[in-house]
Amino acid sequence: MPVPLFASSLAGHLPRITERLAEVARSGRYILGPEAEAFERELAAYLGARHCVGVGNGTDALAIGLRTLGVGPGDEVVVPSFTFYATAEAVAAIGARPVFCDVDPASFCVTRETVERALTDGTRAIVPVHLFGNAAPVDALRELDLPILEDAAQAAGSALGGRRAGTLGHAAAFSFFPSKNLGGLGDGGALVTSDDRVAERARLLRSHGSRDKETYLEVGYNSRLDALQAAALRVLLPELDAWNARRRAVAAAYAERGLGRHLELPEPSPGAEHVYHLYVARHERPDALAGHLRARGVEARSYYRVPVHRQPAMASFLPDGRTPDLPGTDEAARTNLALPMGPALAEDQIDEVVAACASGST
Ligand SMILES: Cc1ncc(COP(=O)(O)O)c(C=O)c1O
Questions:
Q1: Which pLDDT does position 144 carry in this prediction?
Q2: Whether the model pTM is above 0.90
Q3: Rounded distance, CA 255 to CA 86, Å?
Q4: Closest C-alpha among 313, 283, 317, 319 to residue 300
């Protein structure tokens, strides 16, 4: 039985989305405008934040977010190395220096201790990543008294201590890349914050640093949320909680049906409500198991096999040109294996994944 890695529920909503897209096409307002403003208000209200600033993608949300927090050329920003490349790329893109910290391979997230080890006098911000939909311990990081930009690209709807990811630090970057828990029909992103000044500067930066298209106050970006994406996202946002609940039910079913006998299963961090953007387990021989699963039609793959601090483009940022020792990162990179997940995963597909893992582990 074929089982896809991403089991999306988008198809059932396409008729409504295409109606809304046709309305936007007829409206003649394609960039920002009332549709994007409505989505910004709705996402901010859903998260419990004062502001949402729609931008072109999650990478720009990170770069703009860092600048609004006062990070500039030469500043150090602590980022995990076990993450999607864009987390560190956005730091480098604004002329700042990514300083790589380790993760706990059990949560795949940074800890207060791993971040603390990476701090120097030059540190100007921290970017914890809520990786795979698990919340990083932002409350503990706040005690370090530095600006925090959450990378919430993979964590729409997740929470820590009852508060939504994206409202735990000073600002947060979201991505609406199609495979995300809240994914559009193309690229999109948002910077979320409850700080009025941060939001105002983000609005300026996303539009070339100008409010009136006459005077350009800063060198900014052309990075705005399209009305078409906003219209699609407005249809999907009301589904997010139910989809995430179904993702958690799939994770619970995997555990109940004995998947933990064959792999080390992902666990939410203490106090976290995991939204399983990806269901990433760990195994001593992930490539062999993935090959076995694929032969049975079950998609599986490892993520971030070469962590960011080992990527060629990051070599010039390493202190004294030396690769830092990040054992948790290397272990996560070596052992992780993503298994099928998504709100549309059927009961018999869950059974098939468990059976395939069982037969691959013997
Ligand atoms: C952790 C993380 N950060 C940042 C991004 C960048 O988002 P985008 O692809 O929308 O630029 C992504 C996703 O692609 C991501 O997974």
A1: 98
A2: yes
A3: 32
A4: 283
